[in-house]
Design brief:
Length: 489
């Protein structure tokens, strides 16, 4: 049952007045215990909260999952028990959920309610387990950053954390999930965080929104690629990476004009197939501009181990059997690895949609969502310029681009020249002497052609050869954000 709104309000007030906020918990625990807690290690936090003061009691009860005395709790106990959030153990209380403060970046108190993380030795996960907020949630929140919108959709809301990030900039939010328990806990997350007016709907993928359209769609979907759907929060029961593929394909019909979608996803690396062609094919079919980024890749064994640890199955009697079954399933599909990353779509209305697929393992400047339009705009500019247009363009280095030269100490010439972005995507590009010289002298005032001719003369190269090979290099440097095309004067 849902907790009464009055009970939720009283609980929120108690949290705020006691300092059970993200900053309050960090200060109360200290750096070491807070850092350990971020790694899912609770012993330092238990030691830091032994005094049982009011804030320590709340941390132990709701975040660490430790029983506390009824006298120390100072909470509306009976109402919380009736709502199924607490159970009585003699003279002590224990929470049935994990309830933690969350940082939305606004400074306002926010809270996320989920099932408690299962650890080795605990009872196995229930099929409708509601996973809490963590690194993936934070990554999607960064990716989902966008300008204010009228209508937003959080597809597969889980514990409701993405709604907390959408609320400050979306006038109307719809949140869906196939798991009814997830919607119940999500509503509690929103209530404790002071978020109102969210429309929660039960159902799979886009079924609950039928033919509705949105300005922004975000999703941390059940992307785990597994032989069976054991847990609704992570597995959809589709073959291979078909769920993520279909999510991408179905999205355009739910985007308003100019609308955007931002997803986390997994995809297969298959023997004899380029993963970029595979994922690029998904994006090409949408008719939208698209950007897919692989942030990590694991071999099949690493992937299986990750998700068996996630469900606390390492060391259990079924571990080896499930491990072997999962690997055999991958082998039957010639899988060589699994990629992790994000996908962004933009319904730009272009008759020639642009698709970019790349691997980026370096840290990027937050929020990553702010990069989407910047990256697509740069790639489109480079794509649409002819060779002559590139040579006649007035170029300038993008903001934050620096040059690095590598070579033996005292050498006259570097063995390698690198352009590096200190902001945005933070890419690096190895360039030749001519390209480095151009990046050093172009300032948006003179066309590229005469600058290249002068550089050729200084370096002793044939001007015709320099001009002939320049467009390909310039197109890449513009597409990747190292050079900007200056506005016409």
């Amino acid at each position: 049952m849902d907790a009464p709104s009055d009970l939720v309000r009283r609980l929120r007030d108690r949290f705020v007045e006691t300092g059970y906020t993200i900053d309050g918990v960090r200060e109360r625990l200290g750096d070491m215990a807070a850092a350990a807690l971020a790694r899912e290690e609770i012993v330092p936090a238990l030691r830091a909260t032994r005094d049982a003061d009011p804030l320590a009691t709340l941390i132990r009860l709701w975040w660490l999952g430790t029983p506390v005395s009824m006298a120390a709790a100072d909470l509306p106990v009976q109402g919380l028990i009736e709502a199924g959030l607490l159970v009585r153990l003699g003279d002590s209380l224990q929470a049935t959920v994990h309830l933690q403060p969350w940082d939305t970046g606004t400074g306002d108190p926010a809270y996320v309610v989920s099932d408690r993380k299962v650890r080795p030795g605990d009872p196995s996960l229930r099929p409708d387990h509601v996973v809490g907020a963590g690194g993936a949630s934070a990554n999607l929140a960064q990716l989902g950053w966008a300008a204010p919108v009228e209508r937003a959709l959080d597809l597969g809301t889980g514990c409701g954390v993405q709604v907390l990030h959408l609320a400050p900039r979306a006038e109307h939010i719809v949140a869906t999930d196939v798991n009814r328990r997830a919607l119940r806990l999500a509503r509690l997350s929103w209530g404790l965080s002071g978020v109102t007016g969210v429309e929660a709907r039960e159902g799979s993928m886009y079924d609950p929104v039928d033919d509705e359209r949105f300005d922004l769609v975000v999703s941390n979907p059940p992307f785990v690629i597994a032989p069976e759907a054991r847990y609704t929060y992570r597995e959809a029961g589709r073959r291979g990476d078909e769920f993520c593929r279909d999510l991408v394909r179905r999205t355009p019909r739910h985007l308003a004009q100019g609308g955007q979608a931002r997803f986390l996803a997994n995809w297969l690396h298959v023997k004899g197939e380029d993963w970029q062609d595979r994922v690029g094919g998904w994006l090409t079919e949408t008719g939208c501009d698209g950007w897919a980024v692989q942030r990590d890749v694991q071999d099949p064994a690493e992937y299986v181990e990750l998700w068996l640890r996630d469900s606390a199955e390492h060391g259990t009697s079924a571990y080896r059997e499930r491990y072997d079954e999962w690997l055999g399933w991958f082998e039957s599909m010639d899988v060589t690895g699994v990629g992790f990353g994000w996908i962004a779509l933009h319904d730009s209305g272009s008759l020639s949609p642009l698709v970019r697929v790349e691997e980026m393992t370096q840290p990027v400047e937050p929020p990553s969502g702010a990069l989407v339009e910047e990256v697509l705009r740069a790639a489109r500019t480079a794509h649409e310029l002819s060779d002559d247009d590139l040579l006649d363009a007035r170029l300038k280095p993008a903001e934050g681009v620096v040059e690095e030269r590598v070579g033996p100490p005292g050498a006259d010439d570097p063995s390698r020249i690198v352009l590096r972005q200190t902001r945005g995507a933070r890419r690096t590009a190895a360039v030749g002497t001519v390209e480095a010289a151009l990046a050093g002298v172009c300032d948006g005032e003179l066309p590229t052609r005469p600058l290249l001719a002068a550089i050729a003369e200084l370096t002793g190269e044939d001007p015709g050869e320099v001009l002939g090979r320049a467009p390909a290099a310039l197109r890449s440097l513009i597409a990747e954000g190292f050079l900007d095309v200056a506005s016409p004067r």
